[in-house]
Automatic annotation (TrEMBL):
It comes from Hymenobacter algoricola. InterPro entries: MbnP-like_dom. The keyword Signal applies. Residues 34-227 form the Copper-binding protein MbnP-like domain. Keywords: Signal. Residues 1-16 form the signal peptide. The keyword Signal applies. This is Copper-binding protein MbnP-like domain-containing protein.
């Protein structure tokens, strides 16, 4: 009996040790089932890099229609980020709200943590803030009270572009494109799905963090489905038909994937 007990104890010990050892060939990424992904925003105006103006009478850019302008403020919300796999399934980031601001470099890098490891073939996101959050009261982080919010009835400003143009109709030549609205015919919420380069996948792993580099072209606010001329277009300061027209423009091509790092 003593010998049998001894052999049984040795067998159980060997089984426990073998079971706890990692088998050769195991993928370490499968042990840690999540990784990290970044989305980098580069703001441009056509072929040039966006530079915020310091002098209201210096016009660095022109629309496709030929209207000179500059930019003093450029901010927008990105929310509801989704990452799509080749089989059509998606990872939806919870509590996904970011305020992107050209004046604050740190705000142009969106870090998405706890992404399930895998090979992703696409992404989509909302330009703006979804309807429930527009009426949810005082909130925190990117949705904290700021000058990107009007009121509980009109909600958040989804995109804010301000600047000057010599052909603007105001006496000061100042322009304020404040785009928002989440209800009925004035709904300016737009989902975009910028395509990855052909054949490229975003490989999320536990031991490296890829980054998607997006170009965001301010000119796309003023061209596309709707032509915008500063001298005749009623510049929106809130929800309305013209805000929807601007939203239709930037949803049609303002965001493009330039490249993917660390793949």
């Amino acid at each position: 009996m003593k010998i049998s007990s001894l052999f049984l104890g040795l067998a159980l010990t060997a089984w426990a040790v073998t079971g706890c050892e990692k088998k050769k060939g195991d993928d370490p990424n499968l042990v840690a089932k999540t990784g990290e992904l970044s989305i980098e925003m580069e703001h441009v105006v056509g072929a040039g890099v966006l530079k915020l103006a310091t002098a209201p009478t210096t016009y660095d850019y022109a629309t496709p229609s030929g209207d000179p302008f500059n930019v003093t403020t450029f901010r927008y919300y990105v929310s509801n980020i989704r990452l799509r796999r080749a089989d059509g399934t998606e990872y939806v980031q919870p509590n996904s709200y970011y305020l992107v601001d050209e004046a604050k470099p740190a705000y142009k890098l969106l870090t998405i943590k706890d992404v399930p490891v895998g090979d992703y073939t696409g992404l989509s996101f909302l330009i703006g803030v979804d309807a429930p959050r527009n009426t949810a009261g005082v909130q925190e982080n990117a949705l904290a009270p700021s000058d990107m919010f009007w009121s509980w009835t009109t909600g958040y400003i989804f995109v804010k572009m301000e600047g000057y143009s010599p052909v603007a109709t105001s006496s000061t030549r100042f322009m304020q494109f404040h785009i928002g609205g989440f209800e009925g015919p004035n709904n300016a919420l737009k989902t975009v799905s910028p395509a990855l380069p052909a054949g490229v996948k975003v490989l999320v792993r536990a031991d490296h963090s890829p980054a998607i580099h997006l170009k965001v072209d301010v000119l796309k606010m003023f061209t596309g489905p709707n032509t915008v001329r500063f001298g005749s277009f009623a510049i929106p300061h809130g929800p309305g038909a013209n805000a929807v027209k601007i939203a239709e423009n930037y949803a049609a091509g303002m965001f493009t994937v330039e490249h993917v790092y660390a793949n």
